[in-house]
Amino acid sequence: MSDPAHNPRPLVTAPGIFPMYGRLVLCSGTANRPLADEIAAHLGTELLPCDVTQFANSNTFVRLGKSVRGSDVFWIQPTSAPTNDNLMELLIALDTLRRDSAGRITAVIPYYGYGRSDKKDEPRVPITARLVADMLSVAGADRVLMMDLHAGQIQGFFSIPVDDITASHLLARYVREKGIANGVVVSPDLGSAKKARNFAIEVDWPLALIEKRRSADGGSTRVMNLIGEVEGRDVVIVDDEIDTAGTIVNAAHFVLSRGARRVYAMATHGIFSPPAIDRLREAPFEEILVTNTVLIPPEKWLPNMRILSVGALLGEVIYRIHVGQSVGEMFDE
After folding, report:
1. Helices (runs of H) and strands (runs of E) counted in the chain
2. CATH 3.40.50.620, domain 4-167+311-331, yes or no
3. What average pLDDT does the chain have?
4. Class of CATH domain 168-308
5. How far is Cα 247 from Cα 280, in angstroms, rounded to an integer?
6. What is the pLDDT of residues 231-271, one digit of tens each?
7. pTM
């Protein structure tokens, strides 16, 4: 993949390329304004001034500072914690853009909240990932741009175009530049096996899998087996997100008990719900690698944590969507 971080793209349409929609407009909600600023900087533009406030009764209100009539608008808002507030803010923003007659509206959702509720895995439960997809369409989204969905099949919940891009190329570049020799990629459970396999191909390392089983009451899990070899190797444990960190910390202790030399944690989304930071602070990781899809406040930073930016990557994808170029081709370069 080409490196957009080293090739900032001023927002000037290339000769012979004519966007199907009007001028490109970037807007941001309140969930991750620093990331939105990085995207705007990559594109050589500024965020549209908007007021996003809450009334005394906790109702959210959005007002655009300028008209977006006929424009190609991208609203940037991960739906991370507080998930319900950020999701509702996004829905209201989409409705605002639609009522101002935007030419096309793309919801840029670097982290898709409720993505883990993607199936009925027990009786009498909802499929909330599908519900949120319907809500986004009804609110006014014409297409959606997301990163590393928990399950790729969530794209099928939408009746509008979806781009689900991955940060694995950025993470793989970082790992290669570390110069780790004799490494192995480990999936902390079978559900993450495909993501770990793809990453192993990216860095040209072998793959190992941890098998864990849930207790009969569903309240806990325990590691049962390791498929693959880790003895004497440096291990990179790969997952799409680190939430409470229980799974990835247990996996670290397990591979060390099987003879691993050093252990690294890697995920696209650093959610870090309590008690994640306490667990990670005491965990035996050489390094914890995540991206800034979710705003990570300074009080959650750890000395061995590295946060890579996806701002340039998302900026390049937004540019390609705007001018009608292939998004997939940038990952084939």
Report:
1. 8, 14
2. no
3. 92
4. alpha beta
5. 11
6. 999 999 999 999 999 999 999 999 999 999 999 999 999 99
7. 0.92
Return the domain boundaries, the chain.
Answer: 4-167+311-331, 168-308
CB 148 within 8 A of CB 240: yes
In the structure, what pLDDT confidence band is assigned to residue 21 with cuts at 50, 70 and 90? confident
CA-based max dimension of the chain: 62
Domains 4-167+311-331 and 168-308 fall in the same CATH topology: yes
**Catalytically annotated residue among 66, 195, 212, 300:** 212
- Kindly provide the b/e burial profile for residues 49-62, where b requires at least 16 CB atoms within 10 angstroms of the residue's own CB: ebebeeeeeeebeb
Alpha-helical runs (H) found in 140-192: 168-178
> What element of type H or E holds 143?
strand 143-147
Active site annotation includes 212: yes
Strands 50-54 and 60-64: antiparallel
pLDDT-derived band at 2 (thresholds 50, 70, 90) equals: low
